[in-house]
Specification:
heterodimer; A: about 200 residues; mainly alpha; Four Helix Bundle (Hemerythrin (Met), subunit A); about 75% helix; B: about 90 residues; about 0% strand
């Protein structure tokens, strides 16, 4: 018996369309917490600016360069996979994973330093609004969670692609997510770090 | 090229942060630069320019509308938080 398949939305694989829908929903989530941060800041007359250029802003700049570069290596992985160059695609994926891990390590080390200085989601060692730490750790924590999830997804996808279980379209779809994480950081870095620079 | 442009924008943002601008100008500049980076990433990294235009028109205007509505609701949250029972 012949089976008639309905065309996928916009002529793209369903998983890719689902990823676009997820990205839109996640963008609204990040926008909501960034709006909340903006209004909480406006409503707090005793807001403090804790970040000196060295080490926090400099560390944030390095993290930004690392994440932007990982987007470039992800483009390399998608292109190589689409061209059927599996070893090259896997090398680019490996580079992306390493850069994601470097970003995570820099982020965690920054958090550990801040915890050591007395910062938490409910305390401000400078004596001002406790919302400074609360908003910082929630926003950067959600961003970090996305990076870690992306690294795990990249490792899983790379394994499946290497074994021939998944094709290049899976790498492209995961790449969409990775680039989205990069886009989120493009808002988090200036609004959460640079606006709080001393 | 897109990567170099994004790096340039990050450098401009870092310079602006120490240029002693008013908070309003600084926030506005950061948002404009971040939106430019987002457009670059959407077009050249996420290849939105190669997707059917219907995808863009289905997803992005709805998101912008939702964000505008969020911006409309949050100031009211501040007003409500200041209310006290009589």
């Amino acid at each position: 018996m012949a089976v008639t398949m309905e065309a996928t939305p916009f002529g793209m694989p369903s998983r890719k369309f689902a990823m676009w829908l997820f990205i839109i929903a996640d963008a609204a989530t990040f926008a909501a917490i960034l709006f909340a941060y903006g209004y909480a800041r406006l409503a707090s007359p005793n807001w403090t600016r804790p970040f000196q250029f060295w080490p926090t802003i400099a560390n944030g700049l390095v993290m930004t360069v690392v994440l932007l570069t990982s987007s470039l290596t992800m483009v390399g992985a998608s292109t190589a996979a689409r061209d059927g160059k599996q070893p090259l695609a896997l090398r680019w994926l490996g580079a992306t994973v390493v850069l994601g891990l470097v970003f995570t390590a820099l982020h965690v080390s920054e958090w550990v330093t801040m915890f050591g200085e007395g910062w938490s989601t409910a305390t401000n060692p400078l004596g001002g609004s406790t919302l400074v730490g609360g908003t910082f750790f929630i926003i950067t924590g959600l961003s970090l969670l996305h990076v870690i999830a992306g690294v795990v997804a990249l490792i899983v996808i790379a394994g499946g692609y290497r074994r021939g279980r998944w094709d290049a379209s899976y790498i492209e779809t995961t790449g969409l997510y990775w680039h989205f994480v990069d886009v989120v950081w493009m808002f988090v870095f200036p609004l959460v770090y640079l606006l709080n620079a001393k | 090229m897109a990567w170099i442009g994004a790096m340039l924008i990050v450098a401009i943002e870092a310079w602006l942060a120490y240029a002693h601008l008013s908070m309003g100008v600084l926030v506005g500049s950061f948002l404009v630069l971040a939106i430019i980076e987002t457009v670059v990433a959407l077009r050249y990294f996420m290849n939105l320019k190669y997707e059917p235009p219907a995808l863009f028109w289905t997803l992005i205007p709805g998101l912008v509308f939702a964000l505008l509505m969020l911006n409309h609701v949050w100031p009211d949250a501040i007003r409500v938080s200041a209310l006290r029972f009589p």
